[in-house]
């Protein structure tokens, strides 16, 4: 059970503590932030509401700890990360249980998230040793007009304090995807977890605590974004921000100082289906891509752009698969579970009702109980409907019938998002040409969009983000280049 066994010290009474300076603390505010279980819609957990002063202390201790950590040998940093990864995987069950209760993630997917997170930490340790262990050597006579009198050595050094802000849908995996690259690079980390998902994140941080990282190096502060959000993101001692989420990221990028930003924001991932596509493969990927974790993924299929000649056949195949999806509580491992909050469910319903009013074809009856929305395929969606452009973050998928590939590409590129997209065709030449034309960070050919494997580059264009993720890219972003130039005396050509 959450907070029991090795995790007993992370909770005081019925409120989970925050983590700072190597220990678990109660906030002096005397306040807590409630975490609502999306299934029961009742308070399930409580976390500390940290004050600005407590956040300030966490950042200042991170600043001090980072100076020593930067001098810690690379192999030693890697050793501690491997240890944390093993502890994380060993305790996957209680952490997964938190994910089920806090974010209504189906039980099997919750376990997968924790295991994947452990694998990411281990891979990051190994990749960091390889990547950071290599420098570069340049000689001056490779540039016109120079003699061979200067040797230039470059290496990568840490930025300092990294602020990590993950989203509710992957509060463990998208936290470690920021924490591990920061730590292997010699940075310290301040984690601000999402409210829904904070308890799972605190359990994960405890695994790093048990691995024996130096105190102050890792902090996890909880609280209301309205009280500590701007204080964190605008703090003068924060040297880098890695954020995954929605519109808040745009506000952060406008307010933050002149520091590196890694932002993964929303998406309206388009799936373009050509006439020669394998429709069984398409249907399987659209259902998996559109409805897994109830569509609450940045890389979910958000709009299917289907050539008219195959649309009837494909819609029938998708409907047959949607009919087999199980709907209910995450504890029962259902395919479709409640969406994260009532306001999310209301937003999704607004998009559905707008589509109904404007004449979309409902392939299923719209059904909702509390935060639970049954999977819904909307056919004959037109560009004047909100669902054609807005991101539902729920189990609702619009189908737009297109007359040409160009029409599909135009719709995809007219979006202010550009995270991922996919194209289904048996013609590899067409696939590559369409991929080149789609204004998105990644295009999947004959597969639904996906973030992983976690060492692949992952980035968005336009309003979908800044910078690139993936383990190597994150390490690169969380370091800067340090150059040392050795000046040699002017050569005497009589020598030797």
From TrEMBL:
Entries under PANTHER family matching the protein: ALDEHYDE DEHYDROGENASE, NADP-DEPENDENT GLYCERALDEHYDE-3-PHOSPHATE DEHYDROGENASE
GO molecular function ontology, one term from the record: lactaldehyde dehydrogenase (NAD+) activity
Domain of life: Eukaryota
Pfam families reported in the protein's UniProt record: Aldedh
Originating species: Vicia faba
Keyword annotations of the record: Cytoplasm, NADP, Oxidoreductase
Reactions performed catalytically: D-glyceraldehyde 3-phosphate + NADP(+) + H2O = (2R)-3-phosphoglycerate + NADPH + 2 H(+)
Protein family membership: Belongs to the aldehyde dehydrogenase family.
The UniProt record lists the keyword Cytoplasm: yes
Ranges for domain Aldehyde dehydrogenase: 24-483
Gene3D superfamilies, alphabetized: Aldehyde Dehydrogenase, Chain A, domain 1 (3.40.605.10), Aldehyde Dehydrogenase, Chain A, domain 2 (3.40.309.10)
Active site: 264
Keyword match Methyltransferase: no
Gene Ontology CC: one annotated term: cytoplasm
SUPFAM superfamilies hit by this protein: ALDH-like
Protein name: NADP-dependent glyceraldehyde-3-phosphate dehydrogenase
Enzyme nomenclature, EC number: 1.2.1.9
Record's subcellular location: Cytoplasm
